[in-house]
Write a structure and sequence with these properties.
The protein has 271 residues and is an alpha/beta fold. The protein contains twelve helices and nine strands. It has one domain: Aldolase class I (TIM Barrel). The radius of gyration is 17 Å and the shape is globular. The two termini are 33 Å apart.
Amino acid sequence: MRRIRETTARASESGRKLLIPYLVAGDPDLDTTLALMHDLVIRGADIIELGVPFSDPSADGPVIQRGVERALASATSLVKVLQLVSRFRQQDALTPVVLMGYLNPLEIMGYEAFVEAAAETGVDGVLVVDMPPAEAVDLDALLQGADIDLIFLVAPTTSPARAKLIAAQTSGYLYYVSLKGVTGAALTDYDSVQANIERLRALTDLPIVIGFGIRDANSARAMAALSDGVVIGSALVEQIATLTDITDSASHIDDVAEIISIVRNSIDNIK
């Protein structure tokens, strides 16, 4: 089942901008992540990205790194993240789920075992931030055989030749990193983002979503106007950090998810 393709096609036909929240799976625990996933869908999320915790998250800023530390402290592993997706699928068979993380946990599990488990549990896409396209041939072949999309990042520093290669190899959607640096940094150079998105449009018919640096409704609205959708992560993970210090988690989960409601409303009103 190609849930990402179906979801992005519906969004394109209706003129809806894709809203993709990112959560660190297991932050602060897996039950909370599961509750948040369902709440985010209710609030307007189109696709959910789940970060697979890894001890050396080099592409992530301090907010995400602290979320990863909390997830690892609760003993979250790749196997448990896959089990989480299976639990999510018991109530939601439509919303695409993308696993985003680093190569090491996949290598430890083994590509074949990982892809088999990902297909069985209902994963729709995989984004490995430290795997270059040239090294992804074997994993890509296995994922294609399981109807799972392999998604790649394009950065402001990516050369035209490399961007062309990435655009040809990626599936599902193309993820444009809006700034030079790590997740959670401030986004300021909108003109540069616009120029790079226009260049990528000439390379692919896939939806192009923008992530990194999108922290609120204003930045989400600005980036959604230039693209097919936005990924928002650090703002959610920053709010999730407060869940570890409270007892009434249900109401505070709603507070986290409300961020997505606000962003959804903002990007739905782009003229």
